[in-house]
Each structure stands twice: as structure tokens, then as C-alpha cells.
Amino acid sequence: MNRNPLQLVGWAYCLLLVIFLFLPVMIMVPASFSPSEALSFPPTDLSLRWYQEVLSSGEWLSSAWLSAKIGFLAALVATIAGLSVGLAHFRYGKVKSSTRAFLLLPMVAPHIVLATGLFSMLLYIQQLGSGILLAFAHACLALPLTVIVFIAAFEGVDPLLWTAASSLGGRWPKIIREIVLPNVAGAVVISLLLAFISSWDEVTLSVFVGPTIIPTLPSRMFGYLQELISPSLTAIATLLMALTIFLGCLSLLVQRARRRRTEPARVESL
Fold first, then answer.
1. Please, how many CA atoms are within 13 Å of residue 18, restricted to the half-sphere of its CB?
2. Domains of the chain, each with CATH number or no CATH
């Protein structure tokens, strides 16, 4: 089968782009197992020295724990906000395109612009360095992801379920708890994971407005890169990449399990 030359060019471009994106990873992971004091690739020997140093360091562990707490709070806030938008979409018809575009603005706005404006505002009210406010800022950045997930999830829920439950005397808290949430449970888990990953990996806001006494993990890594390049950074980056891949695979498994559960119901309805 003859292919269009433009298609071949497109495939070649995609392949080169994937190689370009994965090349740092292919260098970083082997370099993290090097026992030498300086970065070396390929490593002459294999060692877990830098992983042991990172996992036994109080500074790195305290920053990781802070990033985890901020990530959990940001994920919770973003998921609740996204669920509210999804419920409005489910109950009152499709969300207007203008409203949807407004909710998706954090996805396209440059983070440096948001960080600069937030820095000026928090400096004025003397709240610069607050971990809670940083979590809410991360939640705003993750909001577009949760909105997309929940709107897509509620598209597959029959709106007559709410009408039927209301006609039987069910009040809205009970309807949401016992009917709506079980139907979008997979979307809730996926939303939490995506929002947590978004907060965990965010650097710009963490550097500009995040805590400084105990900085977040990305902020501490950025500070180390400004002072020195240590193989310990490659170990941390490898661990972060492994965590991100694990959470991504977990979200895919949840999505697949949700599809397997909903497919028999669709077949029966047909």
C-alpha cells in the first residue's frame, strides 16, 4: 500500500519528537545508578548510592512530604470543583462554550504570568510562602483537567436517574451520594490522580509563591540545580518519573475497569 509522502513526513516528525523527548530520560536513569561524585554517562559501575542518600536525607524527605500534602489538598479541591461543574452539566444541560473556555483558561495561560501576578498579590497581603494558598493555586491549574474528566463522565449518565430518584422522594444529598457518585466513581479517582500529578510536578508557582523554609520538592530541586549538579538529582528525577508513571498506569487501569463495568449495562439496554 502506497503512503502519501506527507504521511511519511508526519510519521518521521513524530518519531523524531518522541526520541527527542525520551533522550534525557534515557541518559538520566542510567546516570542515577553511577557511584561517582560527578554525572557520568554511561556509568562505569552500578550503585544505589544516590538513592540511599536521597531516601535517608531529612531535607529531601521533608520536601517530598510537603509536596505530597499540598498535592493531596490541591487534588481534593480541584476534584470537588470539577465534580460541581459536572453536576451542573448533568442537571441543567450542557455548560456554555464561553463558560467552558473560561474554566479551561489555566491550561493555556503561561505559568510565569500567573506566578508573577500571584506573587504581587500575596506579597501585598503578606501571605507569601503559604502552603495552603499554594495548594489552592495548584488546584486552579488542575481545574481544567478535572472539568474535562467529569463532563465526559456525566455525558454517559442518564439524566432520568435524577428525575426518577426525585419522584420517589429522594433529596439531592442522598441522590448524589447513592446514585450519582457510584456512576462517576472512576472519574473521581482519575480526577484525583491527575490533579495530584499536576500539583506534584509543578515548579513555577512553587518557586515564586511556595514555602521557602521547607520548599516543595520541585522547588528544592530547582535550587540545587542553580548551585550544583549532583547525581542525587538524577536519582530524585528517576523516582519522580517512576511515581508519575505508576499513577498514570493506575488511572488507565481505573478507566479500563470502568469501561468493563459499563459495557454490559449498555448491551443489556440495547
1. 6
2. 46-269 (1.10.3720.10)
